Each structure stands twice: as C-alpha cells, then as structure tokens.
Amino acid sequence: MDYNEAVVYLDGKIKFGIRPGLERISALCRKLGNPHDSFRSIHIAGTNGKTSTARIASSILTEHGLKVGTYTSPHLALYTERFLINAEPIAEEYFGQCLNQIIPCVEAVNGECPEPLTHFEILTALAFFLFARERIDCGVIETGMGGRWDATNIINSRVAVVTNVDLEHTDVLGKTISKIAWEKAHIIKKGCSAIGGNLNEEALTVIKDRCANENVESKIFGADFSLVSTKKVSETAQLISVKGLYAGYDNLSLPLAGGHQAENASVAAATCEAFLKKALSLKKIRQAFERASSPGRFELIRREPLIVLDGAHNPAGIRRLAATLKQVVFNKLVLVLAILEEKNVQEMLEAIIPLANLTIVTENHSDRCMNADHLSAEVSRLTEDYFTEKDLTRALKLAVKEAKKGDMVLVTGSLYTVGEAREFLHKGVSEGRVEICDTK
Questions:
Q1: Within 175-314, where are the H helices?
Q2: Are 161 and 46 in contact, with CB atoms under 8 Å apart?
Q3: Taking 60 as the threshold, does the pLDDT of residue 271 lie above it?
Q4: What is the separation, in whole angstroms, between the first and last Cα of the chain?
Q5: 188: phi > 0 → left, psi -120 to 50 → alpha, else beta; which?
Q6: Residue 19: its pLDDT value, please?
Q7: Could you give the CA distance from residue 333 to residue 350 in angstroms, rounded to a whole number?
Q8: Edge to edge, what strands does the sheet with 299-303 contain?
Q9: Backbone torsions φ then ψ of 159, nearest 5 degrees
Q10: Nearest 5°: phi and psi at 395?
C-alpha cells in the first residue's frame, strides 16, 4: 500500500464519525500485541496548546539523547505530520507500509464489534504500532478530544499533562469548565506524575481532586514552576526565562510568538523534568527551544505584507491570538476567516473582528465547515467591512491584493483552513508578477 492508497483507505473511515470509548481501540491493540505497552509515555490533554507543548517537549527530550515518537492531531496537509520520530515526520512510503500491516487487525475488529473503528482510533493504533516498531524511548501522545474516553487513554503514562481547560465540544464533554476538566483529568492515573498548565480556579480544583483520588503528585504552573520573563525579539520569536521543577533556565530563544507559547514552553520544560526526574541541561534546552516549531500556530509565511497562519479554532484560542496580535506592529489587518459549524462562532468573532480592518469570509473543504453566507451574516452584525468569497484560494488572492506594505494578512478560524491555505501559499502561487509566498 502506497501513501495515496493509505489516504483513500483512511478518508473512507471519516464517515463513521466520533464515538468516544475504549472498547474498540483496546480490542485492536490487543490484536497488535499491545504496542503502547512497549514504551514510556507522556500524555497531553487540554483545550489549547496541546500540539505546541508536545512538539516542544519532544524537542527537549530528543536533545537529551532519547528517541522520541510524537503523535498529534489533526494534520495540516499530510497524515505523516501526525507521526514524528525525533521531530521529523515519518516517510510517506513507511506510513503506507505500516498501515497496510495493521489493516487485517482493523478489519477483524470491525467484524467482531457492534460498531466499526473510527478514523481516529485507527490512526491512534497506527501510532502505537509504528512507535513500538521504532523502539522509541518515549512517546509524547496528544489526546484527540477530552481524555476519559479518548482513544489515546489506553496508555498508562509516566507523566500526564493538562495544559488548560476552556469550553469546547460541549455536546460531548459537558457544558461547564468543571465537567470538561473532569473528562480531561482522567488521563491522570495511579503511578504517573501530573503537570498542570495555566488552569483557572474551577479546572484546577478538579485536577487536584483527581490527583488526590489517584494518589498522584501534581505540579502546577504558577506555583511549582513558572514563566519568569518574556521579551519579544521579532514578530514570531521571543526570549524567555523559565523556573522549572529542578532548576531555572534563562535566556531561552523561542521561535514561537505569544505569551501562550511561552507558557506552553514552560509546561513542556516541567514535563520533561518530571519525565527524566532531574534538571535539564541548559545547553540542551536552549538547543531544543531554538529548533522548536509548531506549524500553523502564528506561522509567518511572508514579511511584505505580513502573511500569518494561525489555527485558533475556539474562543479561548482566538482570544490568545488577539492578544498576540496586539504585540505585533502592522498597519491594516486583513482577516481571512473560515470556521467549523459546531464552534462557538459568536464568541470567536467578538474577539477577532474588532481588530480587523477588512474581513474576507470563506470556506475550507471540510464537510463540517460553516457555510460562508451563514458566517457572513454573523460577521455583518459586528462590521460592515467584509467580503464573502467562498473559494479559499480566491479569498487568499483577494487578501494579498488588498494588503499593502506594512499590512498583515491573517488566516484563521480552523486548522483545516490553515492547512489548505498553507499548502496553497507554499506552492508559491503568483498574483500578477509578485510571488504570494516568496520568503519566510
């Protein structure tokens, strides 16, 4: 099976939707020999910041000499982005080979269970299978949704991390911060260490209760470790100092923008300390931070005009994006916006529309994307300065045409939107004789 055949197979499983539960993934992994039991792991849940925290932690552990497998979701362009070995995506050919090897077990479970395996369950089992095959020292595993019934939660991690908690997926996880935190807190189990990010009081109470019930020691951002200082050095980079669990780490160059990314980096450092049970090497954490990346998270594509991609896809994420924007110097903001139907659109728009001089409402190709006309109706309640262009490619071209030197084009609202925009922009498509994507 080559990569394209693998994509066809997996895309055909998306129709089965999201069905929380551990029975199907457990049955599949049993048939695969429980590959998740062959390596130690870090398990990361949270409303926002999971992927960035996972990638930074993986970079730190790789610099400390470990072979690290990282599993995140969703991908922006290629499935292989979800599976990293020492910060590098696996090869497309290898992806197809590994998927082909587990398909007989997938089909066997589908024949035995009342409901078929979901798309995410198959990908999660694939991650465990290929990480076991690669004989990794540590797996950094990001939850898909929630924690308690998330497919990743068959692992017994050495360190469990909850980055933050806000309202999200309320139809599945619950309609209050406490209920959502309770769902996420179930990745914390006896025998692990727990790391809490910048948690509000409601979530923190739930996390601490879970730790007490599981007899797990918790280390919390702001109390047991902290972000000491930040200093902006460019549109997409900052210099930070961190107080860890075992030591302080000063003047770390982080090529990611925003106070939330500085917090994520602090959480990642404490997580790695907890995993290694010792202080980190200052030289190695500096190297790790310098090499850290998180595609689609305030990612700079071009400087004149500024073109930035950010996959903020819920109110909390959009508010953090808005705070980051206020730290960047630009003249006019041209916003390209497409959001999934199930999101809290009104809160997202209220946080970002007032910052835009012009909003271009569009659509991505996800079946879950909100119709551009419907989104425009919501946008029109907040501003008269908007256009509707359903085709994302044309929307991007229009945005670049409208932006002048010193302006910013910001593409946001969904990781699906960012993924499609990123693929188009990186192809260097021309508008007139000016390359849309010329230099980073």
A1: 177-185, 201-213, 259-276, 282-291
A2: yes
A3: yes
A4: 35
A5: beta
A6: 85
A7: 16
A8: 299-303, 306-309, 408-412, 333-337, 358-361, 386-388
A9: -135, 130
A10: -65, -40
pLDDT tens digits, 341-351: 988 899 999 99
- The DSSP H or E segment spanning 307 is strand 306-309
Q: Is 279 left (phi over 0), alpha (psi -120 to 50) or beta?
A: beta
Query: Would you say the C-alpha torsion 219, 222, 228, 232 has a positive or negative sign?
Result: positive
* β-strand partners of 387: 360
pLDDT digit string, tens, across residues 375-423: 999 999 999 999 999 999 999 999 999 999 999 999 999 999 999 999 9
Asked whether the beta carbons of 307 and 418 are under 8 A apart, the reply is: no
254: Cα within 13 Å, side-chain hemisphere: 36
**CA gap 153, 148 in Å, rounded:** 7
d(CA 153, CA 22): 8
Partnered with residue 249 across adjacent β-strands are 242
Q: Contact, 335 vs 356, CB < 8 A? A: yes
Q: How far is CA 324 from CA 311, 318, 355, 422, in A?
A: 13, 10, 12, 20
Q: 29 φ, ψ to 5°?
A: -65, -30
DSSP code at position 194: E
Task: Supply the DSSP symbol for 341.
Answer: T
Chain position carrying tokens 């922009």:
425
Domains recognised in the chain with CATH numbers: 3-291 (3.40.1190.10), 299-435 (3.90.190.20)
- The rounded radius of gyration (Å) of the Cα atoms in the chain is 21
pLDDT tens per residue, range 285-325: 999 999 999 999 999 998 889 999 999 999 999 999 999 99
Q: Look at residue 221 and give its three-state secondary structure.
A: strand
CA distance 63 to 345: 40
Q: Tell me the average pLDDT across 259-274.
A: 97
pLDDT digits (tens, 9 = 90+) for 136-160: 999 999 999 999 999 999 999 999 9
Structure-token pair, residue 377? 């109706």
pLDDT of residue 428: 59
Q: Rounded to 10 degrees, what is the CA torsion of 73, 78, 79, 84? A: -70
Does position 12 have pLDDT exceeding 70, yes or no? yes
Contact between 38 and 132 under an 8 Å Cβ cutoff? The reply is yes
- Tokens encoding 301: 């594509």
**Range 175-182, long-range pairs (CB < 8 A, 24+ positions):** 176/202, 177/202, 177/203, 178/202, 178/203, 178/205, 178/206, 180/47, 180/146, 181/206, 181/207, 182/148, 182/206, 182/210
Question: Which letter does DSSP use for residue 353 in this model?
Answer: G
